[in-house]
Predict the 3D structure of the following.
Amino acid sequence: MPNAMHLHILGSGSKGNCSIVESPAGFIMIDNGFSRRETLARMHALGLDESRVRALILTHEHSDHTRGVVVWCKRFSGTLIASAGTPEARSGFDALPFQAVEPGEAFDIEDVHVQTFPTSHDVVNPMGLRLSCGDDAIGFATDTGTLSDGARDALHDARILALECNHDVHMLTSGDYPRFLKERILSNTGHLSNAQAAEAVCELVTSRTEELVAMHISQENNRPGLAVRALACALGATLDNDLGTAATLERPGTAPGLHIRAAGQDRPLSIW
C-alpha cells in the first residue's frame, strides 16, 4: 500500500519556517514564516500547487513562523487554526478568522486527523502536531525546550518524525551569543539540543518509523552533520557519507529501513 501522506519542508530555521503535509484530499500548511513570493517559489520547486492548500495551522506566534501569514491570507480562503491566544499575540492577526484550539485537542481537516499537544516555549500557548490519515502518521515538534509525556505519546510510532535538533550544546556554550540568549535557548522553554533529541528518539522511533528529520537546526550553534550523527548514534544507524548529512538504519528481512536526514533553512525537502 502506498503511504497516505507526505511531508514537504519548505524551510526550517530561525530565518523562516513552513512545512506542508500532503494527503489525498489536499495540503495542510504548518506555519508560514516566508513571504508569499518565497513560499510559492519553494512550493513550485517541489512541484506543489498552492491551490491545494486546505488549511494553515500555526504552532506559535514567533515571527519566523508567522511572518508571511497576513499576506498569504489575502488570497487564501481555507481554514485557519491556532492555539487559543496565539492570534492575539501577533499584530494584524485580529482580523483573520482563526479557529482557536487548546493544545491537547484533536480535530479533522478533510481526510486528516490532527492531534495537538502542548510544547514548552517562551510564547503564549505553543503546540506540536500528530497528523494521521488511514494507517499513516506524521509527528511534528519544533521550538520546545522539553518534551512532556503527552508530547512523547503523540510523537511515538509515527512513520515520519520531524523533531527539533536546534543546537549542539558545546557550540552554543562556547560561542559568541550573549549569556542571556544562551540561557534562554538551554532553558526548559527554549529549544531542544541534539542530545535531547537523540535521547527522545530512542523512545519515539519504532519499527514503523521510516523517516526521521532533524528540524530547526541553528546556523550559528549547530551543523546538519552533528544533528544527524547524534540521532544515528542513538539508534545505531550507519552514516551514508563522510559528511554525516544522512544515515540509514537497516532492518532485517523485508522491513523498511529508517532514513535520517536534516531539514535545511534554504533548501526545500520532500519526505515521501
Q: What stands out?
A: The chain is about 25% helix and 30% strand.
